[in-house]
Amino acid sequence: GTLSILSVGANNAWTSPYLPQITNGTYPGISVTSDEGSWIAIMPQLASPPGALMAAYLVDRIGRKMTTLLMAPITFAMFITLAFARTTLAFCAIRFLIGCVGSILYTALPMYLGEIAHPAIRGILTASVAFSSLLGTLLINVLGFHFSILLSSLICAAIPLVHFLAFIWMPESPYYLIRKNMDETARESLAKLRSTDDNGNEFKMISVAVNEEIANKKARFLDIFTVKSNRFALFVFIILNTTRKFSGIGPFLFYTVSIFQTAEGSVSPHTSVVIFLCIQIISAMVSLNVLDYVGRRPIIIISTVACIITLSISGTY
């Protein structure tokens, strides 16, 4: 399932290798201004809110698996279109649509993985979504250094195709099936996921959890603000997301090559980008392995402090 996120990571970071080429007129047949380039860069971010809203509807309407699976042909079509795009409007539209797909996947896939995974590996499995995005970021930067937009887009188009062919055989989430009163199908799904029919206790636990969730659905939207525990959860959510957005990951992601070109260091921009992304991937691998041992909160605190230090150094420089 996380294979689909590779395409999302590639789309998010597509501007890193290609934006400098199409804005300075060195790419054959394509030329955009810096202002147009900035719009191309932020399209995936603008697509996030509508994508999340669509995901909230789709995951309960057609299921977690089908929502994730449906994104594959859309992503495939968009990368094929990107291969032959030549105008600012086309680039913006394609990146916006793939951004919507990415937002849907970031909502549906962790939900699916969390619901099908054994509790012992649930944390690692859901965290692997972000890891796959980093791999996609590295992939598009490496491809962008060596191949044209046409070739790199065709290569990236193969990823959702492989994902579709592999993921179509996966069972639907037992949680979703129980919500739809498909208990027998849910039992079969759970048996396939656990490779055993002896899962009666887990099935009962899932049923209880689903029933509690359905009961909580009766809660009002205003309960987010009127219930103390909900207000605290909302506060934590806002703080964490604000911290992430102000961590600098967006500009670094979109303009990685441009930033290193401007820095004019002794190491070439392309090599610097690869080193930068490899450090990110190594950090993600470390966090994946210690996530369930150290805990989420310490990792968040450590990464936040590290961001403060590195951004301060970068800003001072």
Automatic annotation (TrEMBL):
Q: Name one GO molecular function term.
A: transmembrane transporter activity
Does the UniProt entry include the keyword Signal?
A: no
What is the protein's membrane topology class? Answer: Multi-pass membrane protein
Q: Name one GO cellular component term.
A: membrane
Bilayer-spanning residue ranges: 39-59, 66-87, 93-112, 124-143, 149-170, 232-253, 273-291, 298-316
Q: Which domain of life is it from?
A: Eukaryota
Name of the protein in its database record: Major facilitator superfamily (MFS) profile domain-containing protein
Protein source organism: Photinus pyralis
